[in-house]
Amino acid sequence: MLNLKIGNTIEMVKPIGKCDMIGCRFKVTDITDDQIEFISKFGIGYMSYTEFDTYFVKHRVWTSWIKIAPGFSYKTDGEKYVRVKFGEYKVKASCNKMDTFDLKTGICVCMGKIRTKYGDLN
User: Fold this and answer.
1) How far apart are CA 9 and CA 19, in angstroms?
2) SS3 for 81?
């Protein structure tokens, strides 16, 4: 199921016919069983879930980098992704759409990726 909520921002990533507004963002104002309503400075629009999957993506809002240990920081969108950095090393973990997002698990996965890719950094 689509992880979209009223108030989310969506972004056009592919033109719809002659409407080429790639990069434009819209706010979701209503979601029903068969359509998504959105608004922008151009007015109100409606689309099906299939149209959303084809032409739009959910715009992710990330936190600032948050220090978790000496040299290590993370940021997250709070819904699916976690990024961890150590110096110039950066890795990302994502939550399976069938699972519930868990920040601690995401950070642990990222730390494991850093250790695997760059060795023990202690």
Assistant:
1) 19
2) strand
Is pTM, for the whole model, over 0.70?
A: no
What are the percentages of helix, strand and coil residues in the chain, rounded to 5? 20, 40, 45
The span from the CA of 1 to the CA of 17, in Å, is 26
Task: Show Cβ contacts of residue 58 under 8 Å, excluding neighbours closer than 6 positions.
Answer: 3, 4, 8, 9, 10, 11
- Token pair for 39: 């608004």
pLDDT tens digits, residue range 25-81?
999 999 998 999 999 888 899 999 999 999 999 888 899 999 998 999 999 998 889
Question: Distance (Å, rounded) from C-alpha 59 to C-alpha 52?
Answer: 12
The encoded tokens of residue 97 equal 């759409």
